[in-house]
Automatic annotation (TrEMBL):
N-terminal signal peptide: 1-24
Naturally occurring in which organism (per UniProt): Acetobacter orleanensis
Keyword Membrane: no
Keywords, alphabetical: Signal
Domain named Lipid/polyisoprenoid-binding YceI-like: residues: 35-199
SMART domains: YceI
Protein name, entry field: Polyisoprenoid-binding protein
InterPro entries tied to this protein: Lipid/polyisoprenoid-bd_YceI, TTHA0802/YceI-like_sf
Source species, domain of life: Bacteria
Pfam family, one: YceI
């Protein structure tokens, strides 16, 4: 039987308290203004599209970097720049994941990076905004609008960094970016769902 440690119990309770505090979302207007850097480990870009008319099939990119400049008093002035290493793509099929790297799909050897650079931010409510920018994929740049909502902010109890999180959704046609394999059997319309974590740097 494991021995009971009073000190360990207190430490665990302290961690739980810290986690509870972190999970209590700061009001959108109280988020700290400043320059933020993407926290790569907990930022994900999910994509889904219709597969043969049967299912919505999903995958994700996980290797994102970039910056956010944000002031809750002036949300329309926010600036976002994101870079994704396309080779980070993952699906539930190892064979498909490997195929997606190839020339018929993302062609990661020639187009290793996807980017999004905001050009306009339109607040749509308390903690929500439409963020339009230039999205580059497969060597082609097109406008893309992301519908963004604020999730929460506070000090991360694990690394002690002040962190703010957002969720965003958007849609695009993959054929517009030159990724046309199996259209229309495999859907052209791609839905993006993005979980973005940002740590304050200045």
């Amino acid at each position: 039987m494991a021995s009971f440690s009073y000190a360990s119990a207190l430490a665990a309770l302290g961690l739980v308290a810290s986690l509870s505090t972190a999970q209590a979302a700061t009001a959108p207007q109280d988020v700290q203004a400043g320059t933020y850097q993407i926290e790569t480990t907990h930022t994900q870009v999910l994509f889904s599209l219709l597969h043969l008319g049967f299912t919505d099939y999903s995958g994700l990119f996980s290797d994102a970097s970039g910056t956010l400049t944000y002031d809750p008093a002036h949300p329309a002035a926010a600036k976002l720049s994101v870079s994704i290493q396309v080779a980070s793509v993952q699906t539930t099929s190892a064979k498909l994941t490997d195929e997606l790297h190839g020339a018929d799909w993302f062609d990661t050897a020639h187009y290793p990076t996807a980017t999004f650079v905001s050009t306009k931010v339109v607040p749509t409510g308390a903690g929500t905004a439409d963020v339009t920018g230039n999205f580059t994929l497969h060597g082609i740049t097109k406008p893309l609008t992301l519908h963004v909502h604020y999730v929460g902010a506070g000090v991360n109890p694990m690394d002690k960094a002040y962190t703010v999180g957002f969720q965003a959704t958007g849609t695009l046609k993959r054929s517009a970016f030159g990724v046309k394999t199996y259209v229309p059997m495999v859907g052209d319309d791609v839905t993006l769902s993005i979980a973005g974590a940002f740590e304050k740097r200045a």
